[in-house]
Write a structure and sequence with these properties.
Length: about 475
């Protein structure tokens, strides 16, 4: 992650992760072992998983007492207030605090605690972001004020075009990724994300979100246009908990993912998530030299060094996204070895939900160490001194990051374990959907040969990128 290079302390992390000479097991053996695990898992699914178990709605309400304790007007109000407060702190610290990115609250909070931490919470507990969403909270207060004055809700002036689906959210996440990985790329003193830039971007996105809510209605915009609601909601579909009409319930883990990709733009968001993480990892390793060569050529043609760096990274980001999409659609097209009346596009929409665990696995594998170390900073000196001006609100401003909290070997094992677990889970979701689509267990298994090859390919790619980035 380019942002990590902006913090001096993370250089130590990079040094700790250089090389794997002390690993008891060679890296190449991990790749073979991971492939073997996938093949064995596929055979086990083919033999033992003979009927679809994740397609039916398994949601059931929890006990009334527990449900009321967790979901009620007071907790919802408090969660919304916390979200608005944190939004305010991000803007305040970004505009009024130090420009040193490793000492300002806003940078770490937005790109680590929020962007990565909320994914983990969503997978574990469900769509928590909906409760904490600051833009939803502000819109609800504004709507309540309008109803109090006018005696009725404000009707949205426009109807949301159904053909847009989630494409506005895809555009929003792409813009966020570009801001983080391209605009904020390190390499020149004038390049990099500053807290001021993050604050301005936050204000701009807030204005964009409020305009969308005003035009199409708050809840409708949250379901299609609000990028982070859609993004975190995608991962929340893997969770065992869901709130429906104010009632907390439990469901089979993974089961809600089966219906998520039915909306236009959903497949693109899954592939964008995988592709963005792939580019971030590849730019630190296998794509490093090609990017540098293109950068040099662009500078020689007369382009300024800052613009050349951003153009080079943008082109390689686009290439990586196209490469990931190509792998996905090649695997989906291969499913036509089993006769079906379904088009490739329809098959892609039916099976894309199986790649949500892969998106999660790539995030965990690539950013695990960053989260471990930077969250120490977030909840100690950055929380106590958000502006980086020497304040010490909670008495932890003098606390540092313990880079020995976890060893390089432990990080590597977590990375490998995440990749294997994510791809095995993807096989489970794909096999379960194939049973639903094809009806016959043998035909369903045959249809997933290409899916297995795709899983092995993505696992090998992930392990290769990790090994290259850590050399």
């Amino acid at each position: 992650m380019d942002l990590a290079r902006l913090a001096d302390g993370l250089v130590l992390v990079g040094h700790a992760l250089v090389g794997r000479q002390d690993l008891p097991i060679p890296e190449w053996l991990f790749a073979w072992g991971a492939s073997l695990v996938l093949i064995v898992s596929f055979l086990a699914l083919s033999l033992a998983w003979r009927r679809s178990r994740l397609e039916d709605d398994s949601w059931r309400p929890v006990s009334a007492r527990l449900g009321r304790l967790v979901v009620n007007p007071v907790t919802e109000l408090l969660a919304g207030a916390v979200g608005v407060f944190l939004l305010g702190v991000v803007v305040w610290s970004g505009l009024a605090g130090t420009e040193a990115p490793d000492r300002n609250f806003s940078i770490t909070f937005v790109f680590v605690t929020f962007w990565l931490g909320m994914v983990v919470l969503s997978v574990a507990f469900g769509d928590l972001f909906r409760a904490f969403n600051p833009w939803r909270a502000i819109a609800r207060v504004a709507g309540a004020g309008f109803r109090l004055i006018a005696g009725q809700s404000a009707p949205p002036p426009l109807s949301y075009p159904e053909r847009l689906g989630r494409w506005p959210a895809v555009a929003g996440i792409l813009a966020f990724v570009w801001l983080e990985l391209i605009y904020g790329a390190a390499g020149f003193q004038t390049v990099g994300l500053t807290p001021h830039t993050v604050a301005v971007a936050t204000l701009a996105y807030s204005a964009y979100t409020f305009v969308g809510m005003a035009l199409f209605g708050g809840e409708r915009w949250l379901r299609g246009g609000e990028a982070f609601s859609i993004y975190f909601g995608m991962f929340a579909r893997l969770a065992p908990f869901e709130v429906r009409e104010g009632v907390l319930g439990r469901r089979r883990p993974l089961s809600a993912a089966t219906s998520w990709v039915s909306t236009p733009g959903s497949v693109a968001l899954v592939l964008l998530t995988i592709g963005a993480t792939t580019f971030d990892g590849a730019s630190e390793g296998v794509l490093g030299d090609p990017i540098a060569s293109l950068l040099d050529w662009l500078v020689e043609t007369g382009l300024g060094p800052v613009a050349a760096l951003r153009v080079a990274n943008t082109l390689f980001l686009a290439f990586t996204l196209a490469f990931v999409a190509g792998l996905f659609w090649a695997g989906i097209y291969g499913m036509h070895t089993v006769r079906t009346s379904l088009s490739t596009g329809r098959l892609g929409a039916l099976f894309a939900h199986a790649f949500i665990p892969i998106a999660l696995a790539y995030l965990v594998a690539h950013y695990f160490s960053l989260v471990v170390f930077q969250e120490q900073a977030q909840f100690t000196f950055l929380l106590s001194d958000p502006l980086g001006d020497g304040s010490d609100y909670f008495g932890t401003a003098g606390t540092g990051i313990d880079y020995g909290a976890i060893s390089a070997n432990a990080i590597w094992y977590v990375q490998v374990g995440a990749l294997i677990a994510g791809h095995v889970t993807a096989l489970v979701l794909g096999h379960d959907r194939a049973l639903k689509v094809y009806g016959d267990a043998r035909v369903a298994a045959r249809s997933q040969y290409w899916m297995l090859a795709l899983m092995v390919g993505f696992t090998s790619l992930g392990l290769y990128l990790l090994s290259q980035a850590n050399q």
